[in-house]
Amino acid sequence: xxxxxxxxxxxxxxxxxxxxxxxxxxxxxxxxxxxxxxxxxxxxxxxxxxxxxxxxxxxxxxxxxxxxxxxxxxxxxxxxxxxxxxxxxxxxxxxxxxxxxxxxxxxxxxxxxxxxxxxxxxxxxxxxxxxxxxxxxxxxxxxxxxxxxxxxxxxxxxxxxxxxxxxxxxxxxxxxxxxxxxxxxxxxxxxxxxxxxxxxxxxxxxxxxxxxxxxxxxxxxxxxxxxxxxxxxxxxxxxxxxxxxxxxxxxxxxxxxxxxxxxxxxxxxxxxxxxxxxxxxxxxxxxxxxxxxxxxxxxxxxxxxxxxxxxxxxxxxxxxx
Length: 321
Fold this sequence. Notes:
Blueprint: H1 4-10, E1 51-53, E2 60-62, E3 66-67, H2 78-93, E4 98-100, H3 108-118, E5 126-131, H4 137-151, E6 156-161, H5 167-179, E7 183-189, H6 196-206, E8 210-214, H7 226-233, E9 236-240, H8 247-251, H9 259-262, H10 269-278, E10 285-286, H11 293-301, H12 310-320
Parallel strand pairs: 3-4, 4-5, 5-6, 6-7, 7-8, 8-9, 9-10
Antiparallel strand pairs: 1-2
Helix pairs in contact: 2-11, 3-4, 6-7
């Protein structure tokens, strides 16, 4: 088992503008035992993020991605945009690429598209978006064309039917766009446990390249059917709501990260929660959303080093209960 000191040395994430362990504010996580981790003053070479293969092609993607709901739904002031510029800088400097968004996240696609173009990062981004809240083929195609305009690109990596809406028609649209080369992969999404049986039925019938679903240390329903099915069918899995929309941090605010995880190099609750999701063998990547640079740094650290063992997972479950 790694000592924490050895792990932190071997997996330093510091790059330009990134400390070894940038702190997450007390409301979200803090360091081990609630203390804020110290920042490094001298950058060192970054360690690579772990990657996993997409079953349908073998293409490998980094295990830590980024969502945009809430975090990129902002105005045009420097106070709102400057932190997002740094969030993206740290994300790509660490080797991360996967960004998940949707046309129904108000201005998120506009903001993301503009910031990526501004920093010449559009071509490096592995963009995932959705057909969301539309009905009918024409509406789906029109929405997708508008998404390309907003993201300032001519194609995306993944197009998902959001929350299974207008499923048959929008899956057909997604596959049509895939055949045209405007989309590389197609998928389906949901975000609540009560929809997981329906999602599993759809995955079994449609066999998409990807599914996206909620999964966390306290919401483990996906383990029953969705995740095993994805493994059996060779469907890649993106995990949303690994932090339970932030509620997990309030639940552990007066608790210390379990010693078994500290010994494995886990330096914050955020890292622990992301590692929990990633430690299921069906999971391809997690997509936590943040608009704060230090939280981005902390999230990215979860993408390095070994997965949690069964004993470490059990320790985390017990600590959060």
